[in-house]
Amino acid sequence: MDEQLDQDVGQLWSLLFTIVLDVEKRLANYLAAHQLTPPQFYVLKTLAEHNGRCPIGEIARVHHLTNATMTGLVKRLEAIDPPLVMREQRESDRRSVDVVLTAEGMERFVAVQADLLQQVRVLFSLLGGAERRDLIGYLARYLQFMQTEFPVDAKNSS
């Protein structure tokens, strides 16, 4: 057994877990400043990634939520004044409902994203160009390796 390998694995796991928790806390703080919860932000993000329109069931699947839970989230986003999303029946299938990002919803999403990116900009300004590229390279390599060697099956991916 390689004792150094075991120590490195433990240290990486600890760092990754700490990073995830730190990012969750920071994101929650930024979202609260924009009067959003993390699940509400993820709905806005999903809609932005789908050109502002997506079936409610698809959003629920992406986030591993039930349709009923997603409906509640969407209702709360509709109830914000002004509404951040609205629901529309699909023309092709009146039983299917699309969630549509409003202009106000897109503005809120962009504002949160701008705040988050500004914090990263400040962090990166403290590093030299080579350090930034190294950090990005290591993270990209880790992600590529994990996705290649340990793919998440289609049922569980987001």
* Largest sheet: number of strands, sense, barrel closure: 3 strands, antiparallel
CATH topology of the largest domain: Arc Repressor Mutant, subunit A
Derived structural class: mainly alpha
How are the strands ordered across the major sheet? Answer: 1-3-2
Let me know the number of strands: 3
The rough form would be described as globular
Distance between the termini: 36 Å
- Per CATH, the architecture of the largest domain is Orthogonal Bundle
Question: TL;DR?
Answer:
It is built from 6 helices and 3 strands. It has 158 residues and is mostly helical.
Furnish the topology, listing elements before pairings.
Layout: H1 3-33, H2 38-49, E1 53-55, H3 56-62, H4 67-79, E2 85-89, E3 97-101, H5 103-125, H6 129-149
Antiparallel strand pairs: 1-3, 2-3
Helix pairs in contact: 3-4
